[in-house]
Amino acid sequence: MVKKALDFDKSLKNGYIEAPYQLEEGESINGQYLEPVFFENENGPTIGVTTCGVLVQDGLYFKDMDNSRKMAPYKDWRLDDETRAKDMVRHMRLDQQAGLVLNTLWNSPVAPSRDAAMNENNELQFDKIYKKHDPSAELPASPLPGVSMAVDDKDVLERKITGGVYRGEMDIEAAMSALYHNAGTQMLEYEACNGGVAIPYSLHTNPINIGYPDSLGIGAAVMGDENFELVYEMARVDRKMMKAAGQNIMYGPQVDIATDPRWPRNSGTYGERSDIAAGIVSELVRGYQNGTEGLNEESVVLTVKHFPGDGPSENGFESHMPIGQYRLYPTEGSLEKYHLAPFQAAFDMKASAIMPNYSRISNDSRSVPQTYRGKSGAKEEVGTAYSKELLVNLARDEMGFGGYVNSDSGITTVQVYGVENLSVPERYAKAIAAGTDVVGGNADPENIVRAVEEGYLQKSDLDRASYNRLLSLFKTKRVDNPYLDPDYANQVREENLDSAKKEAYLANQKAVVLAKNEAEALPLIAKKSVYIKCFKGIDTGASFMAAARGKKHEPKDEEEKLHAFIVSLFQEQGFTIVENPEETDYAYFHVWPISNGMVFNQFATPVIEMVDNGLFDEREVNKSQKRSGKKVSITTLKEVAEIKEISEIVRQNGGKVIATCVVTNPWLLDKLEPFVDALTFQYTTSKVALHNAIRAQMDVLVGAYNPTGKMSLTMVSSLEVIAVHEQEIAGEIREVCVSPNDVPGYDKDPYIAPEILAKVKGGSYAYCDASGNYYRAGFGLNYPK
């Protein structure tokens, strides 16, 4: 690799500066990491290059993105973003366009830190940053059949794919994320030497928790005082860290409204109050996009998901797999009243991207037609990424969405709902023509090329998708200099994580919900004795995902560490820990149920009862809801019977029983609430925030913080209100729920038959406790002041 001496005349007004690096015969662009070279414009953007030359006009520097030595509108930063993006599309090869509208799914630096990426000469090794293609390597197992987890430099060098989903979380040095981004950009820039144009590399990421409550906890926190400022502050700080590390696009927030209690993705929502979700997403857009006027240089692109809301799932089955491919609207007006409100709020704030849901509508008697502002809704039974009625007619024309559409992963191979009979090129053609601009998770640009060449996809539709994708790059000022400073990435993370700790902890305190407090059992009386027991479900999802990645899940180790941490917190507060429940002033239960509802391995109806080795009907795994005739064992809470047993022992000896319930779904509480004197809710399970969440629980238990949180989910009163009955619909046997799948729990009662509610304690869908309180979204107690 030859690095040319940059000894050009600094007073040069018009001319050309050769690319700082030039490959010699036999070398490859992924042979070594190239330190980018920068040219500063006094009143314009910095130009960052490795293998591109630099045009000089009137003393100004411009990146020669195709090394043609000629100026073109897309190279001219003095022009508006729209003109530049439109012109760049004209200069791109077809294979580059195909790569632009795809991204890979599982991207992480090879080494976790710069030290680990250095050779003996203290030089960065490219193959320790970005994985090199090894044709003999065994492909990694995938939890999603038909979607590859394999990612390496072949995706960039041969397939021209310009982005991927970052999976490094916070355990990888921020500098390595920045270097990974630079390495991808370095490979893409070399297209300028091969008849193409230089396009920046983009890292997408799912939301990465930085110590704040998980989404349901954010919902609980802001409902307490309806002050959304903590959401903005979280987004503002996170944006700075993401930008510095090259994570320019977030696959989030998830603003689906929780309406079916069995749906496993309820845990990723902000709850079931659409007004709260709308307020939250408004502040997330303001914080992540750095304002309310759309994208700018300091923005992170937000991909608001899953349009138009995936909460009304069919009895909790999830749409990653065919078994959960339908969303149901049995209630007139539910789409507009509940599900679209957060998306409208995001669009009003100029959100930059959306992700459609996988699922499709049902036109049979399970649903009624939906409208928005008097206009008819979708009629075609296809996944939303294939629906022009939803992506163009509804999102753009009616709701005013102005960004780009990024599909979820796998829509051309797995979630092919309604397009099963089309070939893969035809599926790409239909999705892109319907308004999808980026197709997530696939690494097969050759099928897009085929779609154009064989006449399935109009070139104008691909041009539109390319333009929409490029426009976000120009608006965020990432084209002229896409390269990042890894030292700065580390510095920004260190400074902002430290400053965020106090705000994140306060948010965790605000997220604690006091559900029950009979006879003022809380706050705890200091220096008393406490018997502690942790109850947890079997996390089949974690085990399944670990196995898919070739790793082993160690739940026993995790549970022992959790118990030890909780014990340490009580000891810090001066309590005496006892091992015998007969000899304690208090029993404390940390209750963490875990649903069997997994998106990648759906073998039974998602269970929200607290059961240990319960037997349930097995379904045709992932494929359909048809029963196999076999029973499967499901444990959502191990040793659940001991809650009652220990409670009776403690109470007989004059003690009090206190419990914290981890709420990721609206659990049936009949095996917990009657046996405790006080009950709090915890909505956070993310590893990085878990200790914050549990410490915040302790603050409430001892009275150091007066709880303000409100329930983000309505807790289900009984199995009767979510029972299903079989019904023949359109020639098939379907299961129909007695409560509507599309209405949030706090509002379900008017839609449930009175004779069903008459059988239920409290006469409501919402759980009614021993004190007569209903656990509806928005409920929460506090201590007398």
Automatic annotation (TrEMBL):
GO molecular function, one term: beta-glucosidase activity
GO biological process terms, semicolon-separated: glucan catabolic process
Protein name: beta-glucosidase
Organism, as annotated: Jeotgalibaca porci
Family: Belongs to the glycosyl hydrolase 3 family.
Entry superkingdom: Bacteria
Keyword list, A-Z: Glycosidase, Hydrolase, Signal
Chemical reaction(s) catalysed: Hydrolysis of terminal, non-reducing beta-D-glucosyl residues with release of beta-D-glucose
EC top class named in words: hydrolase
EC number(s) from the headed UniProt entry: 3.2.1.21
Domain spans labelled Glycoside hydrolase family 3 N-terminal: 213-471
